[in-house]
Amino acid sequence: MPLDHERLIVYQRAIAFITWSSVLNKEIGPSGDVRNQLDRASTSVPLNIAEGNGKFSIRDRIKYLDIAYGSALECSACLDVVVAKSAAGPGRVAEGKQIIEEVVNRLVRLRESIAAREVEERSSHRVREGADDSWFSLREMEEDS
Length: 145
What we know:
It is elongated and about 50 Å long. α2 (34-53) packs antiparallel against α3 and α3 (58-84) packs antiparallel against α4. It has a single domain, classed as 23S rRNA-intervening sequence (de novo design (two linked rop proteins)), CATH 1.20.1440.60. The chain has five helices and two strands; from the N terminus they run ααααββα. Helices cover 74% and strands 4% of the residues.
């Protein structure tokens, strides 16, 4: 039975990027620090997605998704550097750019979804006003104003 993070499409696509970038790294050979940087950044993406998905606090989940997002952007920049150093052509990195762009977009949407839940949780607490037993949510109060 897969773990929760393994069911996330963004995690699966991040793993696909590692597979793709590992082949590229073997092809480009030693090109300074970009190979090592691409390997580290691409590895960071799914690791932070998995770790964040295991956190109970919404703020912790968002923190790890933000780290994964930053690492994904770093992967994209590494591919630009590979092209700039003529270690591979733009056509060769196009597939990797497409995968990492999808990862970035999915991370943004996942983060927004989780952040919306945090807002909802904060505003949906029910409170009682006065001595009677009338309960209302803070969200209802905000909507009335």
